[in-house]
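Dear V.,

Thank you for sending over the compound details. I've combined the ligand you provided, flavin mononucleotide, with the protein sequence from our construct and run the structure prediction for the complex. I'm sharing the raw inputs here so there's no ambiguity about protonation or stereochemistry in the SMILES, which I know was a concern on your side last time.
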Amino acid sequence: MKILVLNGSPKKDLSDTMHITRAFLEGMKEAAPQEVRVIHTVDQHVEYCSGCFSCMRNGGVCIHDDDMRSILEEILSSDLLVLSFPLYCYGMPASLKAVMDRTLPLSRMTMRRAGDRYEHVGQADFSRLRYLMVCGCGFPNSRNNFEAAVLQFSLSFPQNRTILTVPESPMFNVKEAESVTVPKLEQIRRAGRQYAETGEVGEDLLKEIQSPMIPEEQYAAIVNGGV
Ligand SMILES: Cc1cc2nc3c(=O)[nH]c(=O)nc-3n(C[C@H](O)[C@H](O)[C@H](O)COP(=O)(O)O)c2cc1C
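Below is the predicted structure of the protein with flavin mononucleotide bound, written out as structure tokens.
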């Protein structure tokens, strides 16, 4: 399986969220061999989409000649596309959003009805691609926090998608927190194994993963310099 990770954290390999992503991929690897490529979006030269739509009319060729050309090729030759990012202002960081906007050449201008909404017709065949969102965040609450990012990902990738959200994720980079982060990463590894074996992660395991590692009030107190 060829896996492309688009890492939207400007902290690159030191990203809190990448701890979650690496654990999930390790779990997958226990079940099946894999080839992983990680692209740190903050390092890429990706111009903002100009909104001219010429790519959609023009056989998928963008007016910008930058790193997005090779990123699109990487996406199309992958089996699994992973968006790994910290929640920023209830969404994804700007460098990753810029990459997402620039995937427009993969679609045609033509739109078709899909259930209760419309979508563009693909300009390339990515029917075999599966999509995984891994998102960490700094608050202890998942409700009233992750919803916009989850909805955006779900609308962007209506099929073959899996979403992992983990609150309190700065703890993954704190040695003193290992008594709770190590078991959480083990749960996530288990989820990766399950995903590689069955193509999905069970609802119960997803719920366990989404739950805070320590009680919300305790986490807030630690962040605030108390306890
Ligand atoms: C610009 C900015 C915006 C943020 N917005 C949110 C947010 O909306 N909700 C939240 O819970 N945490 C927010 N955070 C905290 C990060 O999601 C958190 O620190 C995360 O663990 C960073 O992950 P990373 O190390 O993978 O980059 C924000 C952080 C920054 C720098």
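A first observation: Residues 2-223 form a domain with the Rossmann fold fold (CATH 3.40.50.360).

Warm regards,
I. M.
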